[in-house]
């Protein structure tokens, strides 16, 4: 059994360093890959534009983990993380968005998002100072956790066990 470790405190990464891969910490059943068959994302620190208020090695570690989980993508030349969420009903979608909005209030941090029926596209980026910050990685992970609790729909390519489902009103 591989242990899940936190990034090494005090670890310094220089531009171009690869963040050392560590096992995923997503809850069991949500993961769709095995360690044996799927190589980890190798995110170079130079691919990220970290907000100057954040600890670059922490943001790099957390962004690597989010990319490894397979849902989030880098966008805006490394200044943002984006992904789409789907739920069975508009009510479930709205409840998910309300949960995220409550955490936004607590964190004083806001998404760029769009919603159409049961699909919600979310981008996390920090406007000031510009770049990807620890608030963005926190909010991205928060979205994943709430979506799991609220029964998000995962396509077959996102979840090997799940049959494709059709949204209902
Ligand atoms: C004063 C207030 O905390 C700031 O304006 C916050 C509000 N929410 C924010 N959200 C995001 N995504 N980026 C910011 O820079 C930001 N700034």
TrEMBL record:
The superkingdom listed in its UniProt entry is Eukaryota
EC no.?
A: 4.2.1.96
- Which Pfam families does the entry link to? Pterin_4a (PF01329)
* Alphabetical keyword list: Lyase
Keyword hit for Thylakoid: no
Reactions that this protein is recorded to catalyse: (4aS,6R)-4a-hydroxy-L-erythro-5,6,7,8-tetrahydrobiopterin = (6R)-L-erythro-6,7-dihydrobiopterin + H2O
Q: What is the lineage of its organism?
A: Eukaryota, Fungi, Dikarya, Ascomycota, Pezizomycotina
UniProt name for this protein: 4a-hydroxytetrahydrobiopterin dehydratase
State the InterPro entries in the record.
PCD_sf, Pterin_deHydtase
Please indicate if the UniProt record lists Lyase as a keyword: yes
> What's a single GO BP term from this record?
tetrahydrobiopterin biosynthetic process
Q: Which GO terms describe its molecular function?
A: 4-alpha-hydroxytetrahydrobiopterin dehydratase activity
Per the similarity annotation, which family is this?
Answer: Belongs to the pterin-4-alpha-carbinolamine dehydratase family.
